[in-house]
Amino acid sequence: MEKQEDSIWAHCSSSSVRRASRQLGQLYDDAMGPSDLRGTQFSLITQIAYLKEPTQKELAKAMVMDLSALGHTLKPLIRDDLVELVPDEKDRRAKRVRLTPSGREKQAEMVANWQEAQRRFDAVLGAEKSAELRRTLAFIASEDFAKAYAAAGKKGD
């Protein structure tokens, strides 16, 4: 069997992260159980709850998504009455994303499944490495990283 450090994945950060993301996505989807929600949808409704009725723009920024991708992702949650879009009180052109009562219930119900998935992840990787990985990925997803990455490209010009 090929050693991981000798594989093609050891040479491309983007491909490695995407591959790991797909694997984790499948594992966490399985951990969500018979809820009819995927791990990505749980993450989205949890982010909505955390941000307390964000605008679509604020939510897209927090999720590192463009608005059209966010709209596509919200459609089934709106259809299933877990999320609703409401006009912003100060700017009627902006829409706020709000969990419905059934959305809040579903999010709370799924926390135990997520906690079990997280427990298993930490058990396999180790709590310290797991926490370090989350810090690293949070930095990679940040605007600071994107700016530094862009600046590094200009140095190569």
UniProtKB/TrEMBL annotation:
Keywords: DNA-binding, Transcription, Transcription regulation. One of its GO terms (biological process) is response to stress. InterPro entries: HTH_MarR-typ, MarR/SlyA-like, Tscrpt_reg_MarR-type_CS, WH-like_DNA-bd_sf, WH_DNA-bd_sf. Gene3D superfamilies: Winged helix-like DNA-binding domain superfamily/Winged helix DNA-binding domain. The keyword Magnesium does not apply. The keyword Transcription regulation applies. Pfam families: MarR. PANTHER family: TRANSCRIPTIONAL REGULATOR, MARR FAMILY (PTHR33164), TRANSCRIPTIONAL REPRESSOR PROTEIN-RELATED (PTHR33164:SF105). This is DNA-binding MarR family transcriptional regulator. It comes from Aliirhizobium cellulosilyticum.
